[in-house]
Amino acid sequence: MSPIPIFAVFLVLGAAAIVNVSSLPNYGGSSWAVSPKDCSRTEVFSRCDGNPSCQKTCDNYNEPIPCTRSSGLEGNMCYPGCVCKPGFVRVAQGDQCIPLDKCEGRVKH
């Protein structure tokens, strides 16, 4: 088998991966940070839990979040990014982290 078709397959797969990563949404917060220096003082960097749709907010704090950490093809992948420090929660998806008690009665403890 000629190495050219194999190279072409890898080239297409590589281009698809680049397009996929570059199309990740930006929700206005620092959730899609790529290093700890990108996190605010109310956030910490996580190698796996940075997906904004998987983080607790004032509105979803009492609900289960349907995100799981896994690797491979069977489920959600790890997303590096900033997550709220303990005692803090996002105001809304992708928004800044605020103290949990500032959620204006939306959170039941």
TrEMBL record:
Gene3D superfamilies in alphabetical order: Laminin (2.10.25.10)
Gene: LOC107227921
Gene Ontology molecular function terms on file: peptidase inhibitor activity
Disulfide bond is among the record's keywords: yes
Organism: Neodiprion lecontei (Redheaded pine sawfly)
Pfam families linked: TIL
Residues making up the signal peptide according to the UniProt record: 1-23
TIL domain location: 39-103
Protein name (Swiss-Prot/TrEMBL): Chymotrypsin inhibitor Ani s 6
Domain of life: Eukaryota
